[in-house]
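= Tokenised fold =
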Amino acid sequence: MKATQDQHQHLIDLVTTKMPYGKYQGRYVSDLPEFYLVWYRNKGFPKGKLGQLMATAYEIKLNGIEKVLDPIKRQYR
């Protein structure tokens, strides 16, 4: 299955967007600790793009497939 341009851009945004506030302010969303993402999942992710990115990071970590982001990180960071 080939990723669409929107899906690819979402993954680029995931590895290049930094957390704008909180304990992990300044850390890339894709690098947020799993326990923090679990806490947000239980509390409710923020609305909008940030929440979508955090939900994606949560799903990637939950499924143990963080390595899929390595090539994107190398290219865009």
